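Write out the 3D structure for:
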Amino acid sequence: MIKVKSQRSRRILSFIMLTIGAIIAAFSLESFLIPNTILDGGITGVSIILSKLSGFPVSLLVLILNIPFVYIGYRNLGRGFLIRTVYSMILFSFALSVFRYFEPLTEQMLLATVFGGILLGVGVGLVIHFGGCVDGTESVALVISKRTSLSVGQVVLVFNLVIYFVAGMIFGIDRAMYSLLTYFITFKVIDFVSEGFEQAKAALIVTEKGTDMAKEIYKRLGRTVTVIRGKGLISGDKEVMYCVLTRMEIYELRHIAEEMDESAFITILDVSDIIGQHIKSTQHLSRKKIRYRKGEDKA
């Protein structure tokens, strides 16, 4: 009963923080960036460009353009990601439509760039930290990252550079440069708040259900797992699993552990560098026929 209450409290807290993050992100866009034609990256940036050219509200464009990206994220990150992301995006879109009628806080380009970028980074960082997403670019970048040698950050950067190039052609090179500066400020703040959505993490999981949990991790996240036989001083025989994943996938990993083994012990470690393709999803490995050998990586 205590465990159920604890899980419920964590879910409630996560949705509260998703709400706060989405509202902060929308406020930064409508109060600082959009009135000064400073673009965010990703789908939001595309929405701002289309809104400036067509007159359609940014809030509506953000919601519509993100639909296919949300579906891709759902296929790769699961139902929990879908629920949190849909909630975050709907709230984000609604908040944009509300703040649209507020007066801009400043018309000074430098102030708008700095404070807009900081607030946007705080808002998006909170959403990412608690397992949601207000821009589908990251989920698609995660899929591309699994299939190529590019990191999530590199894919997002390339996508955003294209957006800022287009913005420079339409609105002038100065707006493109301010937008690029905002992007770097936002990215650094996101890194501070959520420890970087593209940063690699290593998970050490001590459990009695290692094989079953490893299969579930591969099924939901596409991550292979090294299973090692271990023995606790008091608890006896255990299975120790080692898995490398991204920050965005840690939230789902916790849910998998809670569902399959409430007594599982998980340690999340920072990874400074990766040599080889351990973090990538293995394409030739059939999901229906996965063989696990203890003490050996299955990648």
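Residues 2-194 form one domain.
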